[in-house]
Structures are given as C-alpha cells and as structure tokens.
Inverse folding.
C-alpha cells in the first residue's frame, strides 16, 4: 500500500519526548537535520560515534566536551558533543550522557546519529555498532536507493565484505532490489541492536523517475522479509522531501 505524508516527523509517527536514532549510510546527518527543522519544538542533537563537526546552518548552539551539565539559553536546536583530538570532528557521547539530556525534559525530541559510514551510500555494521541507547523509541535505518544497479565496492560501500554476506552476493556483483531488501530486513544489518525500539527505514536519494520503481520494489520485498517494521519511507532528504511511503 502507498501512503503519503509530507512531514518527516509525521511519517515517523514521532511523539514529544521521543529519542530517535539514525543508523546506516546515505544521508544520516541530512535526515537528522531535516527532522530537526520540521519539528516545531526544541531539539537536542547528538551522536554516539565520532562525526564531522555540526553544521551551523542547522544548529543554533553546539555544546562541546559535554560532561553532564550545561547552561540552558533556550536555543531551539542544540547539539551536544564529546571531546576528541581529531581535527574537524566532534566526539560521541555515552548512552548515560544522552540519557541525562533526555531526562532533563528540556527538549521535545532527542536525535542521535548512532554509527558512522565514512560518507558511503551503504554500510554493514561492525561488531561494536551501532551504539543505540536502550531507551531509544525509534530507530531509523537509512540506505541510498542510488546503489541499486551499482556494483558492490568500496567506492559506494563501507565494509563491502560484510555487506556481501548480508546481501547474499559477492563483492563486485551488481546490487539488485532484492539484495538491498536483504540488508534492510537483516538482524545483522539494518535491524542490528534495535532492541525494543520501533523501526522505520528510509530509502534516501529517490530523486528521479528511474530510481523510484527500484526503490518501491526494494521496499515491497523488504516488507515480506521481516515483521520488524510496517513501512519504509522513500525520500529525497537533500530537499527534505518524502516521495512515497510503502506500507503493508
């Protein structure tokens, strides 16, 4: 079934007080920033892994080297980061630190980037990731629909050797909708460490008429592989646009 919701917050059925974790590859930060813009209330943004510095176009204030306390100035979107010595990067926070922000009740939503992908379009998680806090309400696995039809290689994939096992293809093989669907429906792939959180995948970069039918096919296959989620959002998050929502 196809349904449409123009607002990402509505599409995710997010409620005030929710903690939302974004995992995978192909637009995590772009999607996180889109969610912060489309939510009307106050938003806290953070990460459980190292990442590039926060974008000042989308964040009103950055609290660096956060250790559990801060002086609140009522900025609408505040990013919290840990300490790192890596240039142009910010450090991730522990689950306890994020829980403290959540329990402060100063924010309507907590948005968390829960793994890294080295700017690739698709990834498989390592043994130690994603780092999803146990109190997370919604997990949003992301993958780029642009990989469909491309060959599985390091140019587009982070850890292609892991992806080959999850997708059921060899490195170098062409990625078909069924292969990306296998990743979305896998407990070792997009569903890893999701715990009891509600899962709502996003197929991003659905930005042309050639990609759309392939994304729809991928979503429909993925919905047959697991009962862990009931819908997949097809989106072009670069423009904060939801293309379609494919649901049961």
């Amino acid at each position: 079934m196809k349904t449409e919701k123009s607002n990402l917050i509505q599409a995710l059925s997010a409620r005030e007080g929710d903690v939302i974790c974004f995992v995978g590859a192909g637009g995590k930060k772009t999607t996180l920033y889109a969610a912060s813009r489309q939510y009307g209330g106050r938003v806290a943004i953070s990460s459980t892994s190292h990442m590039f510095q926060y974008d000042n176009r989308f964040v009103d204030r950055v609290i660096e080297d956060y250790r559990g306390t801060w002086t609140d100035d009522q900025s609408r979107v505040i990013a919290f980061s840990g300490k790192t010595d890596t240039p142009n990067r910010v450090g991730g926070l522990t689950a306890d630190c994020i829980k403290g922000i959540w329990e402060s009740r100063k924010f309507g939503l907590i948005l968390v980037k829960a793994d890294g992908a080295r700017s690739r379009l698709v990834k498989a998680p390592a043994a130690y990731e994603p780092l999803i806090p146990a109190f997370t309400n919604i997990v949003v696995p992301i993958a780029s629909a642009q990989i469909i039809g491309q060959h599985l290689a390091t140019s587009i994939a982070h850890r292609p050797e892991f992806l080959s096992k999850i997708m059921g293809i060899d490195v170098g093989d062409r990625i078909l909708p069924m292969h990306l669907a296998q990743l979305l429906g896998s407990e070792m792939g997009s569903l890893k460490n999701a715990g009891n959180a509600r899962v709502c995948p996003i197929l991003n970069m659905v930005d042309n008429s050639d990609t759309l039918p392939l994304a729809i096919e991928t979503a429909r296959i993925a919905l047959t592989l697991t009962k862990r989620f009931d819908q997949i959002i097809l989106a072009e998050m670069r423009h904060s646009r939801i293309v379609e929502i494919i649901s049961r």
